Every structure is written in structure tokens, then in C-alpha cells.
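Late entry, evening session. Most of the bench is empty. Finally got around to the prediction I had been postponing all week. Sequence below, unchanged from the version circulated by S.P.
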Amino acid sequence: MAVDKRRGLRGGSPVEWGPRVLLLLLLLGGCSGRIHRLALTGEKRADIQLNNFGFYTNGSLEVELSLLRLGTQEAQEKASQVGFSLSRIRSGSVHSYSTRNPHECPLQKNSSSFLVVFLINFKDLQVQVKKYGEQKELFISPGLLPEVPSKPGLPKPEPTDIPKVDSGESRVPPVNKDKEKPGPKASSQGASALQVPSGKDKEMVLGLNHFNDSYNFSFHVVIGSRAEEGQYSLNFHNCYNSIPGQERPFDLTVMIREKNPEGFLSAAEIPLFKLYLIMSVCFLAAGISWVSLLCRNTYSVFKIHWLMAALAFTKSVSLLFHSINYYFINSQGHPIEGLAVMHYITHLLKGALLFITIALIGSGWAFVKYVLSDKEKKIFGIVIPLQVLANVAYIVIESREEGASDYGLWKEILFLVDLICCGAILFPVVWSIRHLQDASGTDGKVAVNLAKLKLFRHYYIMVICYIYFTRILAILLRVAVPFQWQWLYQLLVESSTLAFFVLTGYKFQPAGDNPYLQLPQEDEEDVQMEQVMTDSGFREGLSKVNKTASGREQL
């Protein structure tokens, strides 16, 4: 399990969740961004997906395995059954090892696809690097890239030959020039030099260090040309645990630093800073326009109109903090802790307000009736806690590493809970449509009810389209487009959300000729009494009273 594993929310009433959610936000606010540090103790998984990243030309991947501790039996095995794999994957997809043959080890299987394998040989204290596929300008070297000193006066690191790419020139993979001269300590633990066997340009050997029953080594990879650009997946494999029932725990501590020429963001995330900033301004403008409309038509403004305004402003603030987070991740490799917490808080409020507002509008509250039915109250009792759970799952996913043992579980929880919420908010709209259908020819307001019925059907279609564009079509787009265009997924989601907000405001704007707002002419007490009159139990009691009165008249 992961060292930094947290147990989330357990039990308690919704009132008690507030302090726990706030505490969780403070604990998870300082996520590591694109400089990943993962520590696992007692881990038994055979395959661990560490990270996915989209690299441009001259992008770099640095991996430092600072601690790997296995059992005595595994360490004495000569066959390499433990190591890393670096593969280029198709956009929007991830490797799955759940369906493979448990007796097959991904490290030992030859492949014709783009794949690099790092086989750890504990007996000979070396790491064998094997390349498969066309990788003419994918440069692998031992050690980490030198860091630029953050304070003046610090000694500058020794320069390292980092391959640069010029169009039209062919390159030869770099050969180690004894830059890392092992001292007494390094010589006793295993050399860190890179050796290229003669006649084999696709196999090399890295040194493996051994100290106190643990092993460590480091390497970096540089994307040398446009042919090697793409979405890469880094995985760790321990094939000794491939057979069910024979898993043995091991400890792993690894640091991963990924970087593109423009910063620490993946290729698909580079435009997100500007995208979220622009969308934040758009939602702010929509909120200001909506408030000005409410101020001009105060005679027909309801509480839900102000709730819609609060939703627009909360969405704008959430996108603003999201944009700022991406700016600092791109420049520093990690977000600012306080700003990250503010983003999580506003994201939680935005999610809750969104589904509550959609459900209230769909139920016709304040537009068609003033009192919610028991069924509608149950829907709110389901949607609100589920939204809190969905937002907690989102925060955990954003704050934890992909290789954490509970990362996949929280991701499945987020998908399932979000799907349930999307289905639950449709029920109030359907019930309102049925209510208007039943009342269209019975209360003497046929034209008004038919107009409301038509618009509620339009709103139902709007909600369906919103769910389809943001949940289904966006995922299909993410799978179809190349890795550098993955940001179109977020563009579709945010633009669909903005269009849904604008259309909902247009349908429910406070105007005298709006059919939604023509029904509430009576006092609130009369409407509540009318709601009670529709109850089946009250009708039965009234029929019994009428029968008793008619019997007395006959006597």
C-alpha cells in the first residue's frame, strides 16, 4: 500500500462531513504536480502504472529509483523478472495487464511496437536496457539531468551532453564518456556507467547500486526527434507476483520528473492555462449579464434566479484557480498549496450547486410550484451526498500519484457516482412533464400549461444533450484525437457547460411573457394548500366525509 494513503470519509451525518472535507482539502492541497514522488511499502501488485505524459521534441523523462527492497529469494534470482517499461501508447488509451497470461512477463516478451524495457539484474548489479521498434533518436543515459541552481552563489553542476535536434540531421545515440567516475562507495555498490555492446545499438547496460538490502539507480530519456514524439506510459513490473496466491511484498520509492521544452506540463495540458482563463472570463461575463437582467426585472425574480447567478460566479472562480494551478505547475513542476486548496473548495461548491440547480429547475420549484414533493426531496437527499463523494474522489485523484494502490478505486468511484447523479437529476424533469400533462386540461389553464409542457420538454432535451456532450462525446473525442490535441476534451466540456448555462438562463429569464413564470399568481399559502389537496390520502378522507354528509341528508 502507499505510504501516504488516506482513508477518506467514513460514516457520520452529512453535517459532520463538512469539517472532514475541509481537513481533506488541507491535507491533499499540496499535490506534487508533474514532479512525482511515490513511496510504496508492502506492495504486492505485479504491474504498477506510474505515469502517462505527452512529450514533444527535446522533452525529457527522469527516473530515480531511490529504494527497491525485495525478498532474499527474488534478489538471488539470475533471470530478470523486475524492471521498468516505457512504451508509446495511442492517444486516450492506457495499458491494461488484467487480461494477460499470468505466466507471461511483459519484461521478457519481445515486441515489435515502440517499447523500451529496463531489466534489473540483482545478481550482476546491472540494468539491461532493451529497445523494440524504430527508435533512432530516443536517447537514454544514466543519472539525472543537471538542475539549474535556484539561489546565486551555488556551484553550477557539470555540463551534460543533452542531444539537441536540428531538422534534416541524423544522430548517433550518445555513448557514455566516463562522466560519472565511481568513487570508493560507488565501486563497491556497482558502477553507474552506461555501456554499449559492440554491434548492438539497441541494447545497453546501466549500473545498479546496492546498499543495506536495497537497490537504486537512475536514468533519463530525451526525445530526440519528431518521430519519437507521443504519449508515453511508464510502468513498473514485478513478475514474481504475477501468479495469484504467490505474491510477496516489496518496497518501492521512485521519483519521476517529466518536462517539455515549454515547461513541466504534458503536451495536451500546455494550452489549458489559457483555455481555463478564457472560459473563466466567459462565465464571469455571463454571470454579470444575468445579474443585470435580474436587477432590471425585480418584479418576477425568484430565489432560484439568484442561485443560478451564484453558480455562474462559482464556476468562474473555480476555472480561475484551475488556470493558476496549471501556470505554476508548468513553471515550477508543482502547484501552490493554498491556491490548490482554493481550487478544490470552489470545485466542490460548483459541483454541488450545478446538480442542485438543475434538479430544482427540473422539479419546477418556484416556477410551477413552491413545495417539493416527497419523491423530489428524496432525489435531493441522494444527489447532494453523492456530489460530495464525487468531489472528494476528484480531489483524491488530483492529489495522488497514478501508481498509488487506491488511485484506480477512486477513479472508478468518481465515474460511477457522476453517472448516478446525471441519471438522478433527470427524474424531476420527467415528473414535471407528467404533472403538466395531467394538469393541461383540468385546471382551466390549458394554453399556459401546454406552453410550460413544451418548454419543459425542451429543457429535458437540453439536460440530455449536456450529459451526452460532457460525459460521452468528450470521452470519444479524447480517444480519437492525437496526443497533442487532447485539450480539445476540456474545450468541449467547458464550452458545452457555458452553452447549457446560457440556454437555461434564456429559457428561465425573469420576463413577463415567459410561460414559466405565468402560473404563480396566487399567494404562497394558496399554492401550498393546492399542493396538499392533490395528496391521495386527503382525497380519500374528503370522499368519506362527502358520503357521510349525503347519508345524513337522505335520513
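Two things to note before I forget:
The chain is about 45% helix and 15% strand.
Residues 86 and 306 are 52 Å apart (CA to CA).
Will write this up properly tomorrow.
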